[in-house]
Write a structure and sequence with these properties.
- This protein is α+β, with helices and mostly antiparallel strands and 125 residues long.
- It has three helices and seven strands.
- Strands 1, 2, 3, 4, 5, 6 and 7 form a seven-stranded mixed β-sheet that branches.
- A hairpin with a 7-residue loop joins strand 5 and strand 6.
- The two termini are 25 Å apart.
Amino acid sequence: MEVVTSAGYNPSGWKYLGPKLSGKSTYRAKLICLGYMRNLEEARKRADKMGYRLVEGQAREPFKARFSKPDGKGHVIFGGSEWQDPKGHPRVACLSGFGGEWDSSSFGWSGSEFYGGWCWLVAGK
């Protein structure tokens, strides 16, 4: 639930939907634009076709610490894991930053549209 609390949310009523993770991992990752995606499942399939996997939301705060200034291109989506909010909606971790600072660590609805200019953090399979 650290991902939930690090974004300023009360973890009461939230559920982690997976995948199961343990320990720490270090890997090379990069930001890519997948174009307009109707939902998270479509983004996962597109990344897979390109030879990538979406990086888990647990990487959001380490990414933010390592890259303290956004590139000004907008949202970064961490679509490798999901949470369920207290209202039952599946959510994915994201960062938003349009100026010289990150605006917020938050969550986007997994079943919603992801606009073409948004970037996804990916790693090789």
